[in-house]
Design brief:
The chain is mainly alpha-helical. The chain contains eleven helices and two strands; from the N terminus they run ααααββααααααα. The two termini are 39 Å apart.
């Protein structure tokens, strides 16, 4: 089972980058994808991130989560079609031949366009953050956030929440498998998936609360708030960092020039 946002032990291109370089990468990618409303440009950004994942030997981990990303993207498009009708009508979710409610939810070109833009933005942000998180060790991330003078309490909450995501995913899968081994049959189809949620969520939340109590005691025992903290290893900027930063700066400048000179291409 592929774990979500879990650090992957490798020695690829992204793993050798300094955390500050990867933070700059996220900032540039996020700003560009939020400002851009051109679907071809957003598709190009998604393709570029997949190429970077392949270069960094992280394409398997990214592709493993592609199913979840595509499902969420389809949900974005459906919600947009239902809530934001606008433009030329090309069809209806409920056929016009249905009595009383026929043709009630139109499918318009404007809604599909907005839905695709939101879905592609979501994919860009998810892939960018995923490349950052699965290639950065938690200790390096903590050190980088401390260098940015962030409060240690917020750093601790962020790291714990980030680490709990794969832990809860694995534990939820184990609870589901244990219930199936005991003969529990929620049924098939969408209704069966809905029925299987409650028997998983209840013990999962109970275990998470117990785990949080143990974690609090562990933090106190290890001398949290004792003062000065030391680090065994501090990452230094290398040639890959300078190359990546240069590429990001060139990308930002090119985007700014195109946005000013030819705004129709990106907006």
């Amino acid at each position: 089972m592929a774990e979500i946002l879990q650090y992957v032990h490798k020695d690829g291109f992204f793993h050798r980058l300094h955390p500050f370089t990867k933070i700059l990468f996220i900032i540039v990618a996020s700003i560009i994808c939020i400002l851009v409303t051109s679907i071809p440009v957003l598709v190009l950004m998604v393709a570029a991130l997949l190429v970077l994942a392949f270069i960094g030997d992280l394409h398997r981990e990214v592709i493993q989560q592609l199913k979840l990303v595509l499902v969420m993207s389809v949900v974005f498009v459906i919600i947009t079609v239902i809530t934001m009708p606008g433009g030329e009508t090309i069809g209806h979710i409920i056929p016009q031949g249905v009595p009383v409610i026929g043709g009630a939810i139109p499918i318009t070109t404007g809604a599909i366009s907005v839905g695709l833009i939101l879905a592609l933005r979501f994919m860009v942000l998810i892939f960018a953050f995923q490349l950052f998180l699965i290639s950065t060790q938690p200790r390096d991330l903590v050190h980088a956030m401390e260098k940015l003078h962030m409060p240690i309490d917020y750093i601790l909450m962020f790291i714990i929440a980030l680490r709990f995501i794969p832990t809860l995913q694995i534990e939820g899968q184990r609870i589901h498998e244990a219930q199936l081994a005991r003969g529990y049959n929620p049924g098939t189809g969408m209704l069966g998936k809905v029925r299987s949620v409650a028997p998983i969520v209840i013990p999962l939340v109970s275990n998470a609360l117990l785990r949080s109590n143990v974690l609090g005691l562990t933090i106190d025992m290890r001398g949290y708030r004792t003062g000065v903290r030391t680090h065994i290893r501090e990452r230094k900027f290398c040639g890959g960092d300078y190359a990546m930063i240069s590429g990001l700066c060139v990308t930002a400048v090119v985007f700014a020039v195109i946005a000013v000179a030819l705004p129709a291409l990106v907006f």
